[in-house]
What we know:
This protein has 115 residues and is mainly alpha-helical. The protein has 8 helices and no strands.
Amino acid sequence: MRQSDLCERVVEYLQKCDLDDLSGLSVKQLAYRFGVTRFHLCRCLKEKKGIHVSRYLQRMKFSKLAEWLGGQEQVPLGEMAEKIGIYTQRYFCHRFREHHGAPPAVFLGRPENGL
């Protein structure tokens, strides 16, 4: 399989996955699913998309989380973190801020101490 085909198939697969499918997905599992090594998958996405596959996977998880949160009322911070496979709230908040440019409370329009 050509690298561009692999890259397109991986991106398409990740876009079609729902949040629950993505939550526990690792780069190793993704490579196995497509029958390539982690190294090959990482190199492919880096060359074609300009981003490391783990970073791309993380972005997909946070994008799907944002979609999921759109239909939710009050979701505890710990539940949000678990939804994307992160099990410490501090690390989740750090990554959330990195991805969305604001902490979860600000992104969701809540007072920061209201989480």
